[in-house]
Structures are given as C-alpha cells and as structure tokens.
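Q: I have 353 residues here and want to know how they pack in 3D. Can you give me a structure?
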Amino acid sequence: MAYRRGGGPYYVDLRPPGYGYRVGPFSTRSGNKAIALAMDATIRELASTGRHEARDALREDRINLPDLHAAKVNGKLHALTREVADAPLVEAVRDFLCAHYDARYKTAMERVLQIAPAGARVSWLGDPFNVSRLVRRYRELGLSGSTERREMASVRLLLRERLGKAAAAEVMQDVRLRPHGPERTRWLTQNEIGRLRDQAGDWWIIIGFAIATGLRRGEVLSLLVKDIDFRAGTVVVPAGKSVKARRVVPLGGQILSSLKTWVAEEALKEAGGLFGSITTHTLRLAWQSIRSAAGLDDVRFHDLRHTYAVHCAKAGMPLGELQQRLGHATITMTMRYAVYQPPVASVHYDRAL
C-alpha cells in the first residue's frame, strides 16, 4: 500500500508517490499531522464503503493519495476513479454482471471476452477498432441486427460506467450498427405442442406452463408458490421488463391441476420457488435436448410465448387484452399478432390452449 499506520491514534506514516513526508508519534507539526490523519480516515472510509476500485488504484499507484483525498472531499471521487480505472477486462465484466444481472448482458459479455486477447484491460474495449471487431463477429455468426444492437447496448453501458459518458460516446460514434431486423415470430401448432409433450417428461410442467401463460423464461423461473392463486385460477407476475410487465394472467385447464399436484408432491413452501431450484442454464440444456428429440430444433423457448399469443389472437382475443396478458409496454409490440385474428371476435379465447 502507499500508506502505513500503527502505534496509536497520533502515529501516521504516509509516503504517497510524489508527496512524501512522515508524521511521527511525537511530532509538533500539527498541520501535517491533521492532513495525514484526514487522509488515513479517507482510506478507512473507502474500505468500509466498498469502494475497492479507488483502493486498488491507490495500491497500484494509478492515483496518488493527496489527489484521492482531495477528490473525496470535493465530491469528485467517482469521476477520478473512473478516469484511471483501467482494470483487467475479465474483472470489469465480472463486476458489471454482478451489478446488472440479466441473461442478455451475460451473453453480450461472453462475446466480448471471446474476442478480447488474454490479459486485456478495459482500455482495450475503449478502442473503436476493437469494438468494430466485435460487431463483425456478430455478422460472422449470422445474428440479426436486433441482437447486434441489443448486445452492443450492454457494451455501451459497460464503457459508460468504466470510461465515462463522453468517452463511451466517442468510441461508439465510429461503430456502425445494422438497423433492427424484422421480429421473428415462430409459433407451435397443436401437433407440434403434442410432440413436445411426448418428449418433455417431467419437464412438461414448466414447458406447458409457459405455453399456457405466455410468460417470459425469466418470469417463469422467478415465480414463487404464493404467486399462484389456485382458487381464482390466476398467476401474479410480480416483476418484469417494465411496469406493465407486472400483471395478473388467467390460468386454468389441465395445467392448473398439474400445478396443484406438482406443489403437493414436491412439498414446496409458499414462499419458495414454484419450480424449485431450476436455473436458466439447467432449463436451457433440458430445452435443447427436448426440442431436438421432438424434431423442433428451430424453436426457441421464447417461441412458447409467441405460441400463446398467436393462439389467443386466432381465438379472437382483443389486442388490448392480449397486450395486458403479455405485459407489453406499448400496443405496437402486440400489433404483430393482429394478422392472426379472425374477422369476427370470439368470446372463447381462453380455451385456445
């Protein structure tokens, strides 16, 4: 470290780079003593509040202690540490995912680490040429323009947090992204649903639930037992991508009775997870195996949500109600299903699946 402390409350030994002096236990230089004690208090406060990036920068001599203390006093500590925080890229990605846990961010960060050389630091990502290499990788993989723009938004957020808003904007202004492509809508017919059911086995409880409710994968896995009202036949979605994603979705038919049996057999507690400890990774592996066995390799888990929406629209559900059930932020997002609506609306759309 750039400082040492020992002996007692009046013994401070500070030797920061470019600003070396020592205040001993019997010094009469009260001015230096007060400054030294104030700097020591700054270090201790940073350690207790979890500002490890500032402490690490000080340890590695990327910030000297007087400048760090002055920035702390003047409320500019965040700006100063951000300027010099050129941490290893692997560590920056890890911290980013801890602060912004989301499967989409995880995929984007994995691609960044695949492209970056071993031992790269955050400044490597601050080079527009390297960011452009990442964009070219999206096109080599045949990913859509929507995926490219969505994941690059994650990269932009990482740059803003590590390098600052102005630096991130400067990097991204030279990166050319493709426009959003047409949204892919793949939905399952009743025959295909039957093929999935035949291959799903015990996994049908979660796959059938997703088809019967139209919930997103993250919403399904985050549900608690208490979110299911078995008496009213509804599922309460407590959180989601937007305010409108918090909603109540009707739940009936065979899937409701199957859930009752599931909860009883698994002895799940009311405050526990509805599907136990199933993780996104575990579900992804199971889904890939099931869809391959059913001959539906082109079907994503998210297409179960499209299946719910299309069958409801084909049964005549008004788009306004469909928007509410899907938790779409705007009606524009729901309009893609308008082409599946019959000329005359039906009041029996809850029997569609």
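Q: Anything worth noting?
A: The first helix runs from residue 30 to 48. Confidence is low (pLDDT under 50) at residues 1-13, 15-28.
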